[in-house]
Amino acid sequence: MQPSLFDAHDEAIVPLVGPDLTAVVHRGALAPDVADAALADLLAEVPWRQHHLTMFGRRIAVPRLECWMGDPDAAYAYSGLALDPVAWTPAVAHLAGDARRDAAAALGRPIDRFNAALINRYRDGTDGVDWHADDEAELGARPLIVSVSLGASRRFQMRRRDDRSTRRDLWLHHGDLLVMADATQSAWLHRVPRERGAVDERVCLTLRHVESGHRPPLPSEP
Known about the structure:
By secondary structure, this protein is α+β, with helices and mostly antiparallel strands.
């Protein structure tokens, strides 16, 4: 068995508190040199794609590069995009296995194997993702989302769907791991806002489990 990439330090486990919110940040889950190597591997291995959405009759580029990766049957759809997974790369598969163990330790309970990952590449501060929840039907009623941040630090914001005053702001840094579980996706939204000024590249590996038989019949992206 390969040694885990993640370091377990209880003092680095930071719970986020709020109604219907089950979320934990593991600060520095990856040591700096390990995070550096993981970032280099992902930039080299992952087949990045520029997706487009049609909004108000216009075809608009998604403000980031993406890759949907996972098991062959882990198809996924969001915002009108139908995504079929590319095969796991060695680096992503290794990170996924270790992130599962780290997330289970942070939550204090066992979790199922991840069978898919949405990998986002924020090239600079003009890339981001707007308010949303990872609540698609194929993720089940209580999705578990685990993300590994690599590269530049970026703000991560959360707020309740029914109360904007509940917004939480935190920074996710190189090597941090974020866990969102239970009712979080049904009660809360999250985003990575765009940033002004010079911002270096960031890659975020977001792991999840896709249930079979739920993807709506959407046309493939041209």
